[in-house]
Amino acid sequence: MDKSCEAITDIFGSNVFNDSVMRERLPKDVYKSITKTTEGHQPLDPALANVIANAMKDWAIEKGATHYCHWFQPMTGLTAEKHDSFISPTSDGRTMMEFSGKELCQGEPDASSFPSGGLRATFEARGYTAWDCTSPVFIKEDGKNITLYIPSAFCSYTGLALDKKTPLLRSMDALDKQATRVLSALGNKTSKHVTATLGPEQEYFLVDRSYYKKRLDLILTGRTLFGAASPRGQEMDDHYFGTLHERVASFMHEVNVELWKLGVSAKTQHNEVAPGQYELAPVFATVNVATDHNQLAMETLQKVANRHNFICLLHEKPFAGINGSGKHNNWSMVTDDGINLLDPGQTPHDNMVFLVMLCGVVRAVDKYAKLLRASVANTGNEHRLGANEAPPAIVSIFLGEQLTDIFNQLANGDATSSRQGEELKLGVSTLPPLPKDCTDRNRTSPFAFTGNRFEFRMVGSTQSTAGPTFVLNTIVADILAEIADELEKAKNVKSSVQKILRKIANEHSRIIFNGDNYTDVWVVEAEKRQLPNIRSTVGSLATIMDEENVGVFERQKVLSKAELAARTEILLEAYSMQINIEALTMINIVKRQILPASAEYSGKLAATVASISSTGLCSDYQKEMLETVSELIGSTGKALKELEAITKECADIKEISDKAEFCRDKVIPAMCQLRQFADELETNVDASLWPLPTYAEMLFLK
Ligand code: ADP
Ligand code: MG
């Protein structure tokens, strides 16, 4: 075998307490029992916890670990961890290395400083973390610190979910239950469980660290709050899939190796559309593991970037006027015996399971379009959705020619045929004809069928995949429950299926759109179809507590009304806080960098004008330059004062949703106004005096 390949197969998963390690290190009966638990089908037998914890500890210590931690995902959208060492002092002044089953299964971090949306008063500090056995335990090396990581759920003293993982796990149970009911009603006797699968493609930017250090906006907010357009942008389309720059390629290699060690199957990497933008995609996994892995991927990208003197920007819109970054959530459902429920096969028109699942998803997405939209609503994504190079805020589904044809047949009665793909002849005698897919792709669709899965493309690049995924799981589970209810009482299943599909195809055809989602024509058309188009984050978050949304979460036992209300509050508050930080950062940069540099330049110009005039020579153009800069300084100063006054006013608003609305309606427009003048100054001030690295430098210099 090739030496480098051998190394990779050795490296992969080497820091994971995975199935093969467990088989090797656990007694047979314990191994059997834990496998049932890790597959998610049976709770952990507490009697075995000590044995498992001990095996984990020995394995971890052999790998150099000194600490363990419960690793959880609070509502910040980031991960949290509190490290404890294995040491346990003995009476003779020495120490033993210990790790009990209780320590493995349960942690008790102080919960008072995590956002809870009022679910927990600050004085009620107690929170619990609980080991999620369905996502493997792993070891992370951070500098010299080696720690055993235990993926965990996080809840309050009263058992309310305070994290992103708990509802995700609950939604997996809901989908499993309802999809299995449908399968069984359709005559499937072999599949016992259904799991949702996820393959998130992660987009990001790399910027040289030396530039980053000079940009307080990037340091504090992750995006540029100022910056005139570069004379060259992305118009040449020469970056997408272009040759990897050597420095970037080395960075990617190191990211891959780190991720492979953690068992994250980083697979695809390439240049993205914008200059300085890249993408990483893993091989898909169950939604829970994929979500944990995506968190690890984001963390690793940032960590390794540092080592290469890059900064990895995960923000949804780091640069105005340049493509933003998303996360494309590829999602499907698979049975425990390996059937992908969204695989159409050769003749989808007579694949009953596929058609039911497909129509179930279509109905769910149309019925709960606002909820899906809200699942991707955050401060960063507001710059992206609806801007001209990202999906609009309108949710629609791309089915492609073949499935749309079948969908239309269903609406009119029964589906009796499937269009087949043709051969593609390239007109070169040495190249073989290629089989052509039945359907083209549509990169503009927010929710696209891509052959054997759906790709939800509205998700923001900084977001945890948990939120959008548990929403999708929940709404699909709810529609499948409706379908199962009907099928279970049907005398003739086949005709009942036909009736259900016809109804869905008729009621929900409005959500199907195969055209270009980026055009204004679509916006007008979508309005005619009465599809919601909620552009603002605040407006979108406001729909979360609609009765039908509370209903679907409660029916599927994913979130209670109180838990949902708390989440909404946290999201709204995060929005206002983020905008406030951005506004204050702008004020700081304008006052301390942009205006001083511009004033210095205008002083120099004034001196130049005076000295040239004293020679009797013409200094008209220099005067004009001075006038332009002075005027812009005046406008910038005025806009600065305005923003200062507005942020002060904002600080006095107590009510969370009033504050968020004020940010949208007053603070953001004032920020935009200030930016406009400051960016104009940039194009008029001596480059050697300009304090901030420019777009051209950050995007093009490697
Ligand atoms: P593209 O850019 O063409 O959309 P990529 O290869 O970049 O495709 O990413 C596709 C993603 O979809 C990968 O993460 C892949 O593992 C994932 N994927 C493939 N099949 C499934 C499936 N059945 N369920 C979930 N994700 C899937
Ligand atoms: Mg891709």
Descriptors:
binds adenosine-5'-diphosphate; 6-stranded mixed sheet; Creatine Kinase, Chain A, domain 2; alpha+beta; Ubiquitin-like (UB roll); 9-stranded mixed sheet; binds magnesium ion; 22 helices; 702 residues; single chain
Describe the structure.
The strands form four sheets. Strands 9, 10, 11, 12, 13, 14, 15, 18 and 19 form a nine-stranded mixed sheet that branches. The chain is 47% helix and 14% strand. With 702 residues, the chain is α+β, with helices and mostly antiparallel strands. It is built from 22 helices and 19 strands. The protein has four domains: 3-163, Roll (Ubiquitin-like (UB roll)); 164-197 and 337-559, no CATH class; 202-325, Creatine Kinase, Chain A, domain 2 (2-Layer Sandwich), CATH 3.30.590; 575-700, Four Helix Bundle (Hemerythrin (Met), subunit A) (Up-down Bundle). Helix 6 runs parallel beside helix 14 (466-488), helix 14 packs across helix 15 and helix 19 (561-614) runs parallel beside helix 21. The model has no long low-confidence stretch (mean pLDDT 92). Magnesium ion binds at residues 201, 279, 281.
